[in-house]
Structures are given as structure tokens and as C-alpha cells.
Specification:
- The chain has 11 helices and 14 strands.
- It is of the alpha/beta class.
- The protein has 2 domains: 219 residues, P-loop containing nucleotide triphosphate hydrolases (Rossmann fold, 3-Layer(aba) Sandwich), CATH 3.40.50.300; 83 residues, Alpha-Beta Plaits (2-Layer Sandwich), CATH 3.30.70.920.
- It has a 6-stranded mixed beta sheet, sandwiched between helices. The protein has a 4-stranded antiparallel beta sheet with strand order 2-1-4-5, with helices on one face.
- Helix 3 packs across helix 4, helix 3 runs parallel beside helix 5 and helix 5 runs parallel beside helix 6.
- The radius of gyration is 23 Å and the shape is elongated.
- The two termini are 39 Å apart.
- The structure holds adenosine-5'-triphosphate and magnesium ion.
- Magnesium ion binds next to helix 1.
- The site of magnesium ion has 4 residues, from helix 1.
Length: 385
């Protein structure tokens, strides 16, 4: 792996260099974690709360900080509070409580100053599909009152950067979904922000367009931009983020680097589906009685057992279920992933389609939510002593 060089934090008001990195320079790696120490955090969120009219609690006290130059992901299912957080940071919505700063500037006290520093790409596309790509970018720059000559150059630069030059004079309605989403991102960068908010940049994109967008995000990160992105996709956060916070029901239930979060779940996961679901409780008791198994979670019709060494534990596990007369329909062995982190902290498996298990409808009552403990919070499982 090439050596990773971290750019020094930029001074407030400085503009990111959007030129491609020199060849041979350090490539992007999720492990190249910018340090959040004495530098002013690019984004600082403290005990943020949002209750919408009608009493929906979208944010029930969210805190996190993002270092300059960092890619930070807010990961969570439908209704977790991702957009509510980003909209407050982008000064589009007022918090009910707590505070949020961008580049040290309070979003509620100095929204105009914050707006100068940020780019915001909303979850719903802001592209005018009746206009061409070039027109969309130009209009965006005019909204920021960029001087005409500088804007012309900037538009060409961004079209080139996002590989949109060839289609630039066609109405955006003729573009693919991936192209339109890249145009959204380009529009968020017209005024050279320090911090870019990307609310679900890849939702609805096909795998190829998603991969292109990932490359764009990595490229922007290499150029020193601070990025906060929201996503439904565990893999996306794993691939792109230096650090991430998992939001569930308006709260941060886990936070850290993808590697650190996964490392705390040492061992492997065995997923077991029984032929007869009615016997899940019996199977759970059997697995919890095994020395190889450190924790068991049941979600829906699946049992998840955490074991130190999957390959050696599997025969013992299947043997014990067999002896108890519990027929197994399907079994799978996997290395820890962010899915496991999510499962452990929330007590239920992650579903990116957001079928309501993960907190849609606002924050769940505290009694229904697993309590967080130091580092990685514990979920609804029953870890054995
Ligand atoms: N303007 C609003 N008025 C009332 N309730 C709202 C409003 N916006 C969001 N909510 C509610 O707040 C909660 C959090 O919504 P939010 O949009 O922040 O979630 P999200 O994580 O972005 O979800 P998604 O993945 O679906 O985009 C949800 O219960 C949602 O229904
Ligand atoms: Mg959203």
C-alpha cells in the first residue's frame, strides 16, 4: 500500500485545490485517518436535538466531530435522522436544542457565514432537468455571485472533473441517473466550499454509477475537502469513510473508524436459519450453552452466533443443534463487518431498504433501545459472562 500523506488543515476561508493529485502521491485509504486533536473541528455537533411539529423526535441528542480533511459518514436506515442532521448543518433547519458548528462557526448564530463555507447536495436532486449541465452549473455559480469569467472557467473545470464535458450541452433530462447525481455534486462545489455535505449521494444509483461516485468522493477527499456523507449502505461507509457514526432512532449508537468498530467484534459470525422457526428459542438455548459461542442474537428468523474461530466452531455448533433435534435449513459463516457492528449495537440486522426496523417514525423510546457502553455499545444480544 502506498504511503499516506495527510494534508494539513486549511485555514478558514481557504479554498480546496480541486486539481487532480500529482501522480504517485498517496492514494486514498479509509485508514488514512486525519487526527482530531488541537485543530478546530471542521464540523462539531453537540447534543443536537430536533423535534418536528407534531412531536416527531428526529434527533434525540446527537454528538460527533469531524476533522478537517476527513470523510465522515452518517450511516443509518430510513428515519434515523441523517437528513435532519445535515439540514441543520447546512442552515436549512433550526435545531430544537444543542449546537452545531462548521469551521468553528455556529450554524444558528451565523448562518450566512456557514453557507459561504459549505456545499450541500440534498437527498433529492437539485438539477433542473430542462436545462443543460453547463446551464445548471452556471446558474448555481450566479446564485453565489461568482464573477462571469471566473465562473466560466470554474464550470469547465467542474465538467471536466466529473467527466461531464461531453454531455454538457444536452438537457439534463437526457442524462443517466449517475450523471445527474455527479452534476448535483459538481453544483455543490461551484463556490469552492471547505466542507461538502452529501446526503445519500448514491441511493438509487446502479452499482456502476455508485462505483464512479465513490471514485469522485475519494478524489475530493484526496484534494483536502472535508466531506460529511450520509448513507444507507454499510459497505459505502466502510469503503469511503475515515470515521463514521451509526445513527439509529435519532441517536448515535456507535462511532469510530470502520476498522476499529469491526476490530472490537473479534472473531467470526455464524448465521443459522432453522427449518422450523418455531424452535428458534430452543436453538438459542443450545448455542448459548456452547463454550465456543460468546454471544447469540436472534433477529427475525435468523440466529447469529459470535464465535472466536468460525471454521473450528462450526462443526461443534451444527453437531449440538443436530443432537437437540433442530434441523438447520441454512448456515453461513462471515468475518465481522459493519453489519455485525449494527446488529450488536441495535439488536437487529441492518436493512438498507429501511423497512421500519431501524427507527423510522422517529426516535424509539429509551426503554426499547439498547444502552451504549464505553466504546462499542452493546445491543440486544445476551453476551455471556
Ligand atoms: N419536515 C418534517 N416534519 C415532520 N417530521 C419529519 C420532517 N422531516 C423528517 N421528519 C421525521 O424525522 C425523522 C427523521 O427523518 P430524517 O429525514 O432525518 O431521516 P433520514 O435518516 O434522513 O431517513 P432517510 O434514510 O429515509 O432519508 C423521521 O421520523 C421523519 O419522518
Ligand atoms: Mg434522509
Amino acid at each position: 500500500m502506498p504511503a499516506i500523506t495527510r494534508r494539513p488543515p486549511r485555514a478558514p476561508g481557504a479554498t480546496p485545490d480541486l486539481r487532480p493529485p500529482p501522480s504517485g502521491s498517496g492514494g486514498f485509504s479509509p485508514l488514512a485517518k486525519p487526527l482530531l486533536d488541537d485543530a478546530t473541528a471542521a464540523i462539531d455537533v453537540t447534543d443536537l436535538r430536533k423535534t418536528y411539529a407534531g412531536g416527531v423526535v428526529a434527533l434525540a441528542g446527537v454528538s460527533f466531530a469531524v476533522a478537517p480533511g476527513e470523510v465522515f459518514a452518517l450511516l443509518g436506515p430510513n428515519g434515523a435522522g441523517k437528513s435532519s442532521t445535515v439540514r441543520i448543518l447546512a442552515t436549512l433547519s433550526a435545531p430544537t436544542g444543542g449546537s452545531a458548528r462548521v469551521g468553528g462557526v455556529d450554524v444558528a448564530a451565523h448562518p450566512r457565514e456557514v453557507r459561504r463555507r459549505i456545499g450541500y447536495v440534498a437527498q433529492a436532486s437539485g438539477v433542473d432537468t430542462t436545462a443543460t449541465g453547463r446551464e445548471n452549473l452556471t446558474l448555481q455559480g450566479q446564485l453565489y455571485r461568482l464573477p462571469a469569467a471566473a465562473l466560466r472557467a470554474r464550470v469547465e473545470e467542474l465538467l471536466e472533473l466529473f467527466d461531464l464535458t461531453g454531455a454538457a450541452n444536452r438537457a439534463a433530462m437526457t442524462w443517466s441517473g449517475g450523471m445527474k447525481r455527479r452534476l448535483d455534486v459538481a453544483m455543490g462545489l461551484v463556490h469552492r466550499p471547505e466542507v461538502l455535505f452529501l446526503d445519500e449521494p448514491t441511493t438509487g444509483l446502479d452499482p456502476e454509477s455508485r462505483s464512479v461516485m465513490w471514485d469522485e468522493v475519494r478524489s475530493l477527499s484526496r484534494q483536502g475537502l472535508t466531506l460529511l456523507l450520509t448513507t444507507h449502505y454499510l459497505e459505502e461507509a466502510d469503503q469511503l469513510a475515515h470515521r463514521l457514526a451509526i445513527l439509529d432512532g435519532g441517536r448515535v449508537v456507535a462511532e469510530g473508524t470502520p476498522e476499529a468498530l469491526k476490530a472490537r467484534l473479534r472473531g467470526d459470525r455464524v448465521s443459522v436459519e432453522l427449518a422450523d422457526r418455531v424452535r428458534l428459542p430452543a436453538a438459542r438455548d443450545v448455542l448459548e450453552g456452547l463454550g465456543e459461542v460468546s454471544a447469540v442474537l436472534v433477529d427475525g428468523t435468523t440466529l447469529y452466533a459470535h464465535v472466536a474461530h468460525g471454521a473450528s466452531a462450526l462443526p461443534a455448533l451444527l453437531g449440538a443443534l443436530d443432537r437437540a433435534g433442530l434441523a438447520v435449513a441454512q448456515v453461513a459463516l462471515s468475518r465481522p463487518s459493519l453489519d455485525d457492528v449494527y446488529l450488536t449495537v441495535t439488536g437487529h440486522a441492518y436493512r438498507s431498504d429501511g423497512d421500519g426496523r431501524g427507527g423510522s417514525g422517529g426516535a424509539r423510546p429509551a426503554a426499547d433501545r439498547p444502552a451504549a457502553v464505553a466504546g462499542l455499545p452493546q445491543g440486544g444480544g445476551r453476551p455471556r459472562a
